[in-house]
Each structure stands twice: as structure tokens, then as C-alpha cells.
Amino acid sequence: MTISKISDMLCVMPQPDIGDFQSLRDQGFTTLINARPDKEEAGQPGTAAEERAAAHSNMSYSYIPITMATVTEADIGAFQKALNDSVGPVVAHSKSGTRALLLYALGEVLDGRMKPEDVLPFGQKNGFDLSAAANWVEKRAASRPQVKGFFDKRTWSIQYVVSDPETGACAIIDPVLDFDEKAGATATHSADAILEYVHKNGFSVEWILDTHPHADHFSAARYLKEKTGAPTAIGERVVDVQELWKDIYNWPELKTDGSQWDRLFASGETFKVGSIDANVMFSPGHTLASVTYVIGDAAFVHDTIFMPDSGTARADFPGGDARMLWRSIQDILALPDETRVFTGHDYQPDGRAPRWESTVGEQKTANSHLAGVSEEAFVKLRTERDKTLPMPKLILHALQVNVRAGRLPEPESNGKRYLKLPLDALNGAAW
Ligand SMILES: N[C@@H](CCC(=O)N[C@@H](CS)C(=O)NCC(=O)O)C(=O)O
Ligand SMILES: [Fe+2]
Hints:
The chain is 31% helix and 20% strand. By secondary structure, it is of the alpha/beta class. It folds into two domains: 4-141, Protein tyrosine phosphatase superfamily (Protein-Tyrosine Phosphatase, Chain A, Alpha-Beta Complex); 144-386, Metallo-beta-lactamase, Chain A, CATH 3.60.15.10. The radius of gyration is 23 Å and the shape is globular. The site of glutathione has 11 residues, from loops.
């Protein structure tokens, strides 16, 4: 085993054999990071076997599969987290070790501990060619807007701050208001983390955007509007979603004119984030009101396409439609191949670290529900899969908040707020 020591806390190495795991533990490593996607070559142990062997040797295990061409900030963040969370030294591997070191070096650059020009010499010093890392840093510096994703573990949601480096203006997209259904408790940890990031960077919030009325979490749009004064917005077809849920909740007082938001976007409408042009594409299918925000070269597609290894969003909620989703996805895939695609959920297949950024090109060639799949085949696949999915556990809780732009129900005479849960209103019980 050739193990390269990078620091007291980190070593990198080529693919170890499963039989070497105990010896790695005996050498003092307490965490093993696997940066290699499964099925790269025959005979590779793969994440399931590595996870088992790590557990057997009493090592923590993180699966952060990357390729040089598709590495993202989420992967770098996951690597840093695994390193920070480790009680003892970490050993990280890829096929040769280069990608493991690349993840480390990029984290050092993003945190300002390594200068971009020092990446190549740092690689050489350790016997690795980090030219892919140097190129990544260069490309990122040139990209507009800057996009920061915040992953909410509780709901597998990704919330975004999209900022214009020239003006410091930003938009917040799909923020989450925390809710613990067991205690009926609400909290603003997620939204406050976004605010902290915004303040630390001196950004001014120009927009609070939702891509659709979410069915699995509360929107923090209202809370963030109160905190920042920024206008809220959503696609104009939200009024149809309001009509639908007004019936389900038997809620005559619900206003169904979208007046709960400051702006309702029509298809094709444009707006600005600082100096960056943005436009709104309708993307119905997952919900009637779903939109994609295209801001500079970044498309916020939320629940249409997920990461290529995860496929697409479900289309069986009230107002959902698999064929409509297919058409919306075709519009997204018609954007230039280099367009960055930011998804709204990541359900972490195979236990890999959360990821949320891809490109249109990657989606076209690698999305497991779309690449080489016809419209008919997609509709069949989506419809069949949806029949197997239970409803999101918070759908009935969430919609009554989200069709009012994230306003919680008004307090009753005792000052407490109450949710209303219709019985037998939806299919999808898993008995
Ligand atoms: N288990 C999750 C499921 C949430 C869910 O249904 N998510 C939607 C997006 S809002 C989806 O498209 N899921 C796709 C899938 O699970 O394959 C929950 O209860 O919240
Ligand atoms: Fe959704």
C-alpha cells in the first residue's frame, strides 16, 4: 500500500483492497473516504463492500464519488465535513489518489488557506498532477452568478443563495422553515444559516424565490421577507394550486389570487439579480405551478430533474402530470450544454454524500430516467415508480403554509397556531 501523508489528519492513497481495511485501522486511521464512483472498472470493491469493511474495522466511512469533470462545491464540502468530523486521522482514496487529493486542495483554496497558483506545486510536491483542480478554480472564478447551496438533511432539500459578484446583489431560492412534526415545533435554523451567509458576504437580498409550492417542507419565504424586506415571488400558476388545495382543505377564506406573494411571474418573464439577467421558464409536471429560474448560466430546476444518478421528480401530487413533466424537462435540456443545473432535492442514492450541481450536458448523457429514454418510456417509468412512493410525510402540513407564501396559520384565541389535516383526501397511504 502506497500511502501519501498530506497532513497529520489526512493521507491519500490508491484503491485499497478490502483485505487492507483492518491494516489501515491498525495504522491509526479512523475514517475512510471513498472518492471513486462505483463501476469504474471491473474488480473494484464498490461502496457497499467498502462501507461494510470499514464498519467491520471500526472506521467511519464517507462515499463522495467524483470525476474530475463533474466535481462540485458540494463534493468539496462533503470532503471537508468528513475530515472535520473524524475523531482521528483520515485516509482518502480514489483510483490513484489524485481525486482524493484534488478534493482536499480545492477545499483549501475555497477557504482561502491555499492560493490558486499554489495548487499545481502542492500536487507535484505530493507526487500528484492537480491540473484538473487548477482548471476548476479558474473556471469557478469566471462563473457568474456565484451559487451557494445549503442542504437540509431533514428534507433532503437544497436551498440556494445566488449572488452577483459585481454588485453583491443576491436572490434566495427555496428556503426551508424547519418543522419537527413529532413536536409540532417550528424553527429558523436553516433560514438563519442563509441570513448569516448573506450578512457575512455583505450581500443585499433582492429576491426571495420559490420554484413551486413545496409538498415536503415549509417555505421560509415569509420569515426571510420579514427579516430582509426583500420581495417574494413564485410562478403565476400558483393560483391554480391554491384553488386545488382550497378544496382539499375546505378553506373558504383562502384567497386564490396569489396576493400572498409580491410578484407572480408569467412564463418567459425576465428580472435581474444585480447586473445578471434572469428569466422564468414554466416547468409544470411535478406541480402545476413549478417554474425554473434561469439566472445567468445557472438553471434552478428544483423538482424536475434530480442529479443524473437519481433521475427525476415524481409527478403524482394533485395537479402533477408525468407527460407535462417530460415536456418541461425537454425545455430545460434545450438550454446550452454548459448551463449549470441546480436541483432542489437530493435523496443520496447508495448513501453517497449529497450533491446538487450538474450541467445540461451531463444530464443529457447520464440522467438515469432520461438518457436514451423516449417520451412514452419515461411516462411509463415515472407513472409506475410514482405508484410505489408514499406521499411525503409533510404534504398535508406543508401545503396549507406554502399556498400562503410560507405564512403559518394565524394564531387562535390562545395565541397558538394550528394546522388542519384532512382525512382520506389523498391516495398514497402505505399500510
Ligand atoms: N420521503 C420523502 C419523500 C419526498 C418526496 O416525495 N419528494 C418529491 C419531491 S417534493 C420527489 O419527487 N421524490 C422523488 C422520489 O422520491 O423518487 C418525504 O416524506 O418527505
Ligand atoms: Fe417538490
